Amino acid sequence: PAQRTELLARCRDLLARENAVLVAHYYVHPDLQDLALETGGCVADSLEMARFGRDHAATTLVVSGVRFMGETAKMLSMDKRVLMPDLDATCSLDLGCPADAFAAWCDAHPDRTAVVYANTSAAVKARADWVVTSSCALDIVRHLKNRGEKILWAPDRHLGDYIRRETGADMLLWQGACIVHDEFKALELELLKTEHPEARVLVHPESPAGVIALADVVGSTSQILKAARELNAPAYIVATDKGMFHALQQQNPDKVFIEAPTAGNSATCKSCAHCPWMAMNSLQGLVHALETGAGEITLDPELAARARRSVERMLDFTA
Ligand code: 13P
Ligand code: SF4
């Protein structure tokens, strides 16, 4: 604890000294989330993180999350320095959608609008027409469908399938998945629901269709938090990364939050649903980045400009 207190103090000093602001995702360690809020940064979903970083006056953004979040922050603020506590923090969706294979897929379907999830590399975003996050994907695809457009969707197959079911849009789906949400199990969730009839079910749409079908609310991390604040049920079963339970409990001290079952956690492991890449973010990494300039995101300016166009479409659409 002494070391933790000392590290937190160093982080506060370094953030101030470097004119830096901390932009954190809900899945990172509670210490980083609390530090972000306490020092004037933010804890947010991936859409809000992008907007917050772009609009903030700090000259250095420290993005505590995974690499695509750092890249998105950088392309929206090429004049700012963007640091990450660990540059190796990636995402199974990003890894599962290499830019060359994605470009070949687009080339094979020139009649379709390419819509990619934010959880992709800058190179994939540069090839896409639109970027979306889980908080705005439904509205944007509905808008494209109303304009008569057919869609190529990458990379998350569960989110894509959910949006296709909800909107009836003509969508071809890349077959990527999030290694965390893909593990939630519908049968076990149904059993857990019968044990907690008073609980509402909140689900991130990267989860399989059977899990989504049992949800009272489906949404991004911020939308899950909003639902937990606004619904008046005493208890909630939550199918998303366990990092979220910190903000859920903080914002709703009188409500009970229960982890949705994954393959491993029914009896043996109580917190299997945690992203290994989000877990790479640490106070030590933050200190190291701010002290040495390690973990800096760099992007080719021409590639960044092309990627920025599809991200800015999303930001304008949701403004
Ligand atoms: P959100 O946009 O809901 O924050 O999701 C990002 C993510 O990586 C979820 O796994
Ligand atoms: Fe990617 Fe899943 Fe981790 Fe989110 S939780 S960063 S989608 S692997």
UniProtKB/TrEMBL annotation:
Pathway named in the protein's UniProt entry: Cofactor biosynthesis; NAD(+) biosynthesis; quinolinate from iminoaspartate: step 1/1
Domain of life the protein comes from: Bacteria
Chief localisation class: cytoplasm
Keyword 4Fe-4S set for record: yes
Alphabetized GO MF terms: 4 iron, 4 sulfur cluster binding; metal ion binding; quinolinate synthetase A activity
This protein's UniProt keywords: 4Fe-4S, Cytoplasm, Iron, Iron-sulfur, Metal-binding, Pyridine nucleotide biosynthesis, Transferase
Cofactor: [4Fe-4S] cluster
Compartments reported by the entry: Cytoplasm
Record-linked SUPFAM superfamilies: NadA-like
Top EC group: transferase
EC number: 2.5.1.72
Pfam families per the UniProt record, alphabetical: NadA
Descriptive protein name: Quinolinate synthase
Organism this protein belongs to: Thiomonas delicata (Thiomonas cuprina)
Upper classification of the organism: Bacteria, Pseudomonadati, Pseudomonadota, Betaproteobacteria, Burkholderiales
